[in-house]
Design goal:
The complex is a heterodimer. Chain A is mainly α. Helices cover about 60% and strands about 0% of the residues of chain A. Chain B has 10 helices and 2 strands. The chains are: A mainly alpha, B mainly alpha.
């Protein structure tokens, strides 16, 4: 009998990078389906463009850096970036929006820092913020959900609109955004912000047709679907519970406190938790293994800070949603958090 | 003469204040949204740098070591005031568009850095040359960065050149691209950081290539140590 001497670790979870990344992408599927149901085929078109762009950008950069192209591409991290960015931008945005965002995310934010594992910032969110500050008009042009939209567009028309900024029947992006009432609508979070700025109460703002019973029409379902996908990730042990739980509980707590003090001007906890990018951010974006904190206590601090920042910017800042900004700000703090939350090594330090 | 050559090379390339010393980044990042602004601030900095270098060099033997920094700062501040008043008088539009960044030249570390590192130890003529070269190197980086940001952000070059050079310069304005949507990030502060980072990377990779080439040209012969004694 041969006894082989192997060094530790002796037991392995068999979670390769590509398996982790592909599981995360798969867990996005419920949310993706929900977005297609409520916002039409634009999401699919954006997703296709995003995947093409990230693959091309990653391959070109790897080639330039003299790294093996295929093995790195196959780990799927670039595709995940593309998927997350495609899910974050307005579904009917012109094609160059997603192309610029994906190229920036992969080339500057990821590869120039050294590729997967070295990037300081979450590539998808850095790309999103670049787009948001560069093209505020296009990036806030969310179309209304399909059920209250004046135009029911098929796949072909959507492709035309994204690629040529006009459908075959001559609809422009502006006219495609018109609701059945003949007016264009902001997203739920944006409408609350605008209404409060005009002196209305949140309850009055929620009379607008972009809202359903408790939260934004459609948005609640989309967030629910991402929550479902996130729970699958937790069950599969792809992500730890610390970041999403800390993030959601602090966001919920902060918005509840805000609601108690100013019920007229503050959106309640339900709206905060089930609008915008909350669930996508909590389970899929803040938990990025590279740019998030890596110690358990650090993860709690990281998630809680993102939740608090998101609430503060949403309720008192200049932007309607803030997941991307909060994640980027906390990405910068990660080295500091990790430094101060090092777990005690067994047998060293501690009491007595 | 080799001394002069070294000063020229150091200022323009090897020890460029913006790309290598990374000094004076505040104005560099803040005003390079157009070529005109960049050129205006670059020339202003150049003038101050030459003036302060010459003056510091002239008084270097009479300034006690312990209080040299305050003295240098006073000299620089005097020159900045001169330049500021000149710009206020002759290029008022540019004076307004550069705003606070003209008086802030006083705090540009590139200037105090050269006064301390070079002018306080060298003769006036060499210091003047150093000021000119450092100033030119700084201006060149400002203009390149300003050009890139203006081109990407607005699609133009030399927009508003008449503010700096007089009315005839309005014809210099080039419209290279016509955007429906500007890439605002290029004009906003993040664009300056990203742009400067890329410029530094470009310079470093060029230098690394040059170095590799030089090494290839003269492969070193393996030295042989003599182990047996001669006698």
């Amino acid at each position: 009998m041969m006894l082989t001497m192997a060094s530790s670790p002796h037991n392995h979870s068999h979670k390769t990078v590509s398996r982790v990344m592909l599981t995360v992408i798969a867990a996005c599927i419920p949310g993706l389906i929900a977005q297609v149901v409520f916002f039409g085929f634009g999401v699919i078109v954006q997703l296709t463009l995003a995947l093409i762009t990230v693959t091309a950008a990653e391959a070109a950069m790897l080639k330039m850096r003299n790294k093996p192209v295929l093995p790195v591409l196959k780990d799927g991290s670039a595709w995940l970036t593309g998927v997350l960015l495609a899910l974050s931008i307005p579904p009917l945005a012109p094609w160059w929006i997603i192309v610029i965002g994906c190229a920036f995310a992969i080339i500057l934010v990821k590869q120039l820092y050294g590729g997967l594992g070295y990037n300081l910032f979450n590539p998808a969110m850095a790309g999103y913020v670049l787009l948001l500050i560069s093209f505020p008009v296009q990036m806030t042009a969310w179309s209304p959900v399909v059920s209250i939209s004046a135009n029911d567009m098929n796949l072909l028309e959507t492709i035309c609109l994204v690629l040529f900024e006009q459908t075959s029947s001559g609809l422009s992006l502006e006219s495609a955004r018109v609701t059945i009432d003949g007016i264009t609508m902001a997203t739920p979070l944006d409408s609350i912000k605008q209404a409060v700025a005009q002196g209305l109460t949140v309850n009055e703002a929620m009379q607008s047709p972009v809202f359903g019973e408790h939260s934004g029409l459609g948005w609640a379902w989309i967030n629910g679907a991402f929550l479902l996908g996130g729970l699958v990730l937790l069950q599969q042990r792809i992500i730890n519970w610390h970041i999403p739980v800390a993030l959601l509980s602090v966001l919920g707590l902060a918005s509840a406190i805000g609601y108690v003090f100013a019920p007229g001007q503050e959106a309640g906890t339900i709206i905060h938790l089930f609008s915008g990018a909350t669930m996508l951010g909590a389970f899929f974006i803040a938990t990025d293994p590279v740019s998030a904190s890596t110690t358990n206590r650090g993860r709690l601090i990281f998630g809680a800070s993102i939740g608090l920042l998101t609430y503060l910017i949403r309720a008192h800042g200049g932007y309607p949603d803030a997941m991307a900004f909060s994640v980027l700000i906390m990405n910068m703090a990660v080295p500091l958090i990790d430094h101060y939350t090092q777990p005690r090594v067994y047998g060293h330090g501690g009491q007595a | 003469m080799s001394n002069v050559n070294t000063i020229i090379q150091e200022g323009l390339w090897k020890n460029n204040p913006a790309l290598v010393q990374l000094l004076g980044l505040c104005p560099l990042l803040a005003v390079t949204s157009t070529v005109t602004n960049a050129l205006g601030l670059g020339i202003a900095t150049l003038l101050v740098l030459v003036g302060s270098n010459v003056t510091v060099s002239l008084v270097r033997n009479w300034v006690p070591k312990d209080i040299r920094i305050p003295v240098f700062v006073m000299i620089i501040a005097a020159f900045v005031t001169v330049v500021q008043l000149l710009m206020n008088a002759y290029t008022f539009g540019l004076y307004q568009s550069l705003g606070i960044f003209i008086p802030l030249i006083v705090t540009n570390c590139a200037i105090i850095g050269r006064a301390e590192a070079f002018a306080s130890k060298n003769t006036a003529s060499l210091s003047a040359l150093d000021g000119v070269m450092m100033g030119l190197g700084f201006t060149a980086v400002l203009v390149v960065l300003g050009g890139a940001r203006e081109l990407i952000g607005q699609g133009t070059l030399f927009d508003g050149a008449d503010l700096l050079l007089g009315d005839w310069a309005a014809i210099l304005r080039l419209e290279i691209f016509q955007f429906d949507n500007q890439l605002l990030v290029a004009i906003l502060p993040p664009g300056a950081f990203i742009g400067l980072g890329l410029l530094i990377a470009l310079k470093n990779s060029y230098d690394a290539k040059q170095k590799a080439k030089q090494l290839q040209v003269a492969p070193e012969k393996a030295p042989r140590a003599r182990v047996t004694s001669l006698s």
